[in-house]
Amino acid sequence: MIHVFLDDVRLCPTGFVAAHNAEECILLLQECEVGVLSLDFDLGWGQPTGLQVASFLASSQRFPREIYLHTSSWSGKQAMHQLLYRSKPESVKLVNGPMLHDTLQTIANTAKNRL
Question: Where in the numbering of this chain does the Cyclic-phosphate processing Receiver domain appear (predicted)?
Answer without folding.
Answer: 2-85
